[in-house]
């Protein structure tokens, strides 16, 4: 014999008749006689947001029609001005006609561009600050990274990047 038995029921939330959800009970929605948990739905939404973030690596930079591989250079270039060289993957042959772009400083969306000359050299006038950069050349892998421009860095510091054939 059970005396003073207390039975607690989960409160139910009744949704309007036009809703595709019939009722909610303990974090589970019943939809057309199926139970759909909220967690998997949220996981899918978060996965989609993560994918979009990965695509944002290139931001507003120019995209090559056959751009498949984008390499992130981990260490920032610390220079007194935005100038440097691009080479092909043998690190000896200059890479002409490569588009070099910087975005910034900071959160600014302004993009400055330069194309390398026959010697693989480029130069962009830019005030002090932190910039994102990207290299683009048809049929080659793109490189992205960070450039920090400050007068405190030696004028001998230059940006040197090696570009590799794409896939």
Please describe what this structure looks like:
The protein is mainly beta. It has one helix spanning 38-55, and strands at residues 13-14, 23-25, 28-31, 34-37, 70-72, 77-79, 82-88, 99-103, 111-115, 121-124, 129-136, 142-149, 159-163. Strands 5, 6, 8, 9, 11 and 12 form a six-stranded mixed β-sheet that branches. The longest helix has 18 residues, at 38-55. The radius of gyration is 27 Å and the shape is globular. The relative contact order is 0.19.
Features:
167 residues, mainly beta, six-stranded mixed beta sheet, disordered N terminus
Short description:
The chain has 167 residues and is mainly beta. It has one helix at 38-55; strands spanning 13-14, 23-25, 28-31, 34-37, 70-72, 77-79, 82-88, 99-103, 111-115, 121-124, 129-136, 142-149, 159-163.
Fold blueprint:
Elements: E1 13-14, E2 23-25, E3 28-31, E4 34-37, H1 38-55, E5 70-72, E6 77-79, E7 82-88, E8 99-103, E9 111-115, E10 121-124, E11 129-136, E12 142-149, E13 159-163
Parallel strand pairs: 5-12, 6-12, 7-13
Antiparallel strand pairs: 1-2, 2-3, 3-4, 7-10, 8-9, 8-11, 11-12
| Spatial extent as radius of gyration | 27 Å
Mean pLDDT: 76
- The 3D shape can be described as globular
Helix content: 10-25%
Tell how many strands the DSSP assignment holds: 13
Structural class: mainly beta
Order of helices and strands, N to C? EEEEHEEEEEEEEE
**Termini, distance in Å?**
76 Å
Portion in strands: 35-45%
As residue ranges, the low-confidence spans are 1-24, 31-39, 42-57
Helix count equals: 1
